[in-house]
Amino acid sequence: MSALSIHGVSKVFPGGTTAVDDFSLEVGDGELVCLLGPSGSGKSTVLRMVGGFESPSAGRITIDGEDVTRQSPDRRPTGMVFQSHALWSHMTVFNNIAFGLKLRRLSPAEIRDRVEGVLELVGLTGYGRRMTTQLSGGQQQRVALARSLALEPKILLLDEPFASLDQHLRERLRDEVRDIQLRLKITTLFVTHGQDEALSMADRIVVMRNGRTEQADRPDIVYRNPQTPFVAGFIGTMNFIEGVVEKGHFLHDQVSVPVPVADGPVTFAVRPEALQLAGAARPRGQARVHRVTDFGTHGLVDIQLEDGTRLKSMVNTPDHFHLGQEVDLKPRAFAVFRDGQQLYRTHLHG
User: Fold this and answer.
1) Domain ranges, residue 198
2) What confidence tens digit (pLDDT) does each residue in 156-186 have?
């Protein structure tokens, strides 16, 4: 069993900049948890503190109940894969992977077996004698992963490992890494600012903002039930409309939607796939089509309200819409926020 516990960890850099503020997290045995957030949210600092590359200003980090807060990186049962690969260009693939094993004074036979085993695991059998400069970016990242796995860490740490790769390679490699993680059942903490990676790989997503947890839950819940406007806007695409609730109806220009919350200003949030468009029931619709984009599998219709507010609607038949067309809005699911918190939401229905 390999469990990671982060208890009230903070990091204040010289000069008074607080990167992480009283952050806590439990990562269960074999779980893959993703730290997701914009630049400066503190996610990479958390990961570096778990790996021992930064020292917490406060708090405690334990692995399987053992306090590792003040241990150096080489003494921790963790393996870290960096965005930059961090490979030695003057060494062969074999020697890159074997380096840490040699420091642990393993026998040559055991080193050979481990290196060959992880090369097979990451799909690079037969690449041991090649120089890292002869490899593609994706192959170099596989070597970096193999080097960490060869040490048989209890906790695998991934710091935006796909950020420097092109989209198709990134998608393929993240699927491969997730398959390996599931096969080995290795507890993993993964940092990214890419929502697609988080949604496709993680058992749980921790959305971070200003060094704190904004929301932590399963990917489907974070996407469908965001608890704050920040999470709603950061995960996926979200349409926001500022307005007021009066007598049980959300109002904004010609838009009126029944909402069972107390009167007052609110933010109305609806995702493109939950915003249905219909031909205007009156000579003048609630919105006007601004642009239509056909992606083949679906269409995206940009619409504009009278006050200039821009929204997006995902449609199955983009050819049914054209520039300047008057349309009415039919939200099939939405959330309502006030003072930074969710007041009400509905579920998507047909």
Assistant:
1) 4-228
2) 999 988 777 777 778 888 888 898 899 889 9
